[in-house]
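Dear support,

I submitted the protein below through the web form. The confirmation email said the job was done, but the results page showed an empty box. After a refresh the structure appeared. I'm attaching both so you can tell me whether what I see now is the final result or a partial one.
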Amino acid sequence: MVKVRELYPIERPRERLAQLGPAALKDEELLAILLRTGYRGKTVLDLASGFLRNYPDGRWTSLSVRELQRVKGMGVSRAATLIAACELAKRFTKDTPGGLPAVTSPEQVIAQVSELREKKQEHFIVLYLNARNQVLRKETVSIGTLSASLVHPREVFAPAVEARAAAVVLTHNHPSGDPTPSPEDVTLTRRLSDAGKLLGIEVLDHVILGRERWISLKHTGVL
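What the results page shows now:
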């Protein structure tokens, strides 16, 4: 079993938070930082992942110390840490307005870039997401001709690094009205996906919009 200390620094939750910011971390990584250590036979990431699987609806945030202690590996110190963190979050966010919009489906992606349907030129828009798939930023990366749009990985991922994004969703329109991906669309998608892997920023999907239809390259198996 791989221990957390045996991972490369950029793969460790604390180091990832320090370098990329909290928005780039998954729920289990943030929880692992609070829990600090695992127990015999389980890493802290194993403990955190198992805990979140048992409470996928977030109900654990309202449990007492005694109730949390019933979870294997969750002593009084860890339980108290979690409750204290939840209480601080509640106190500092109780007056905060509604959260960021989340995109977990092509339909939700399209709602964020619906203006693309009416464009007479190709527009390449990228949505930059945190670890909860909430939109941190939206950028028009390229405006092309009626038949082509030039996109470079640098222009796509520079805003991602600046926004400390965990993932991106690519979108563009086909002014012809037919969203069928061209060979160039497929090649570009795979190129950007490979570039994202090197940076630790996942390309979740590439949605192409026509006038009446759309196509998700994730659903078609390109990603």
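Response: this is the final, complete result; the empty box was a page-load delay. The radius of gyration is 21 Å.
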